[in-house]
Amino acid sequence: MNEERIYQILLGPVVSEKAARLGESGQVVFRVRRDAHKREIRRAVEKLFNVVVEEVRTVNVKGKRKRYRQGIGRTSDWKKAYVRLAPGQEIDFTVAE
Fold first, then answer.
1. Average model confidence (pLDDT) for the chain?
2. Are strands 65-68 and 71-74 parallel, antiparallel or unpaired?
3. Which helix (H) or strand (E) holds 28?
4. Are 44 and 30 in contact (CB under 8 A)?
5. pLDDT of 43-86, one tens digit each?
C-alpha cells in the first residue's frame, strides 16, 4: 500500500453517543472510504496514531431517504470501521498538536 493511500483511507471520526460509549472500552469509530478493506484500515490507524490495533470491524451504512422541497432525495451510502485498540492504547481527538 502506498503512502498517499494511507492518508486517504480515514475520512474522520464518527461522533455519536454510541461511539463515545465504545470509546470508554477501547474502541474508536471512523468513517472510512467505501473501497477500503480491514487490512488497509488497520495499517492506516497504526501509522497515523502510533497505536496497536487488535481488531477491525466494518459496516456498510445505507444512505437515508430525505424529503426536500423538490421531492424525495437520498443521502450517500458510507462505510464505518470499528477499531479495537490493544489494552493501554488510546487515541485522543481533543488534543490539537
1. 92
2. antiparallel
3. strand 27-32
4. no
5. 999 999 999 999 999 999 999 999 988 889 999 999 999 999 99
Cα 78 to Cα 1: distance, rounded to the nearest angstrom: 22
Taking 90 as the threshold, does the pLDDT of residue 93 lie above it? Answer: no
pLDDT at site 66: 92
Q: How far apart are CA 29 and CA 9, in angstroms?
A: 13
Burial class (CB in 10 A: 0-12, 13-18, 19+), 46: middle
Give CA–CA dist 78/55, Å, rounded: 20
Say which residues have a Cβ less than 8 Å from residue 91's Cβ, sequence separation at least 6. 28, 45, 49, 51, 85
Percent of the chain with pLDDT over 70: 96
Full strand arrangement of the beta sheet holding 27-32: 10-13, 27-32, 78-85, 53-61
